Amino acid sequence: MKMMNKAQMVVFTGLMAFVYTSYAGEFEVLQKDKKFSQSGLTVKVGDSVNFKNEDPFFHNVFSLSDVKTFDLGSFPQGQSKKVIFDKPGTVEVECAIHPSMKINIEVRK
Ligand SMILES: [Cu+2]
Questions:
Q1: At a CB cut-off of 8 Å and minimum separation 6, what does 86 contact?
Q2: d(CA 75, ligand 1 centre) in Å
Q3: Of 10, 13, 32, 63, which is most buried by a Cβ count within 10 Å?
Q4: pLDDT band, residue 20 (cuts 50/70/90)
Q5: Separation of 69 CA from ligand 1 center, angstroms?
């Protein structure tokens, strides 16, 4: 095989990035009736989860897990926010407004 020149290399790298991102999964978790729509979810490294508030009041989404620490803040009905899970492990996600709301996200390699 011939060596690639610089322009071909740029195209190739772009293509690989496209292939990688198009394989990353996107999941949706609803916040409804003061609950997450499921108690657990398994995703792969690189996948993203979109949290959508379907209640007529504010919800928050945060995690203090070592694997993924984040705080999406509070947002009203109809809005959603996305998190990309970039490391393997278990991430416990909660709502700061409703302490009983929890979902465990298992991120696999
Ligand atoms: Cu809540």
A1: 45, 46, 68
A2: 9
A3: 63
A4: low
A5: 18
Beta strands 48-53 and 80-84, pairing class:
antiparallel
CA of 24 to the centre of ligand 1 (A): 27
> Which residue type does 100 have?
S
pLDDT in the model for residue 42? 98
Domain ranges for the chain: 26-108
Global pTM reads: 0.80
Burial per residue of 63-98, b for 16 or more beta-carbon CB atoms within 10 angstroms, e otherwise: bebebbebebebbeeeebeebebeeeeebebbbeeb
Residue 48 main-chain phi, psi, to 5 deg:
-120, 150
State the residue for tokens 């292939």.
Answer: 19
